[in-house]
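Lay summary. Proteins are chains of building blocks that fold into shapes, and those shapes determine what they do. In this project we predict the shape from the chain. Here is one chain we studied, written as its sequence of building blocks.
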Amino acid sequence: MERHLIALDLDGTLLTDNKVISEKTKNTVLKAMEQGHIVVIATGRPHRASIDYYHQLGLETPMVNFNGALIHHPKDHRWDAIHSPLGIRTAHKIIHTCQELGVKNILAEVKDEVYLDQYDEEIMSIFQTKNDPITVGRLQSNLKDDPTSILIHPEEEKIQMLRKELDDHASLIDHRKWGAPWHVIEIVRAGMNKAVGLDKIARYFHVPKERIIAFGDEDNDFEMIDYAGVGVAMGNAINELKDLANHVTHSNEDDGIGAFLDDYLKINKHAI
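And here is the predicted shape, written in a compact code that computers can read:
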């Protein structure tokens, strides 16, 4: 059987709405790996918020974090990692623009270091880990290194206006909107997306495009779904991604990844 590279987005894709991997999907993914297929995680999340799922699947592969702004191998530090942060001057311009518009909060991440402009327990509960405490306080003072990403938390009714303002910086940044329930705008360096990471990993494993299967649900999955020979949108994906994808599977709540892999690669048939 020809080896495939399988790229998994996390939220709304591999994970259920309760942020767990269903047993059915997990078992199918593990069987795919046993049969020689390569599984990688490609997510907008930082390393610290995705590594637990990496370990749950027993992965030994590189990982794409921050929508391609960090491509690295959690278990092999000799691997040619790429970190492509925003320039600090650009970051401060973006922060200033957002504050002028009156957003609720701004968070900056330098790999696994987190800087939050204003104290917010809800945001901190999501981003804080025991090993990576959050620095809270004025970003213009605390943020001194090039950030891997910036997250803007605006009022819902200000999202369109904010994204229009950010378009003025299009030569320097890319910005994407997170899915519900988080109305968050994520900003990374221009040209960074999951396809960049997937291309690097595919070349590393010598897997051609036609044998790359990628799963996603949101607008930060566009490039990856378009790049893959087999782009798969989840049943809960935004309509624009479904229109772009080669296939549409069940939702993240209905084992969409497991069902597709089982059918497309005949996983359980080979397992018998």
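What the prediction tells us: The first strand starts at residue 5 and ends at 8.
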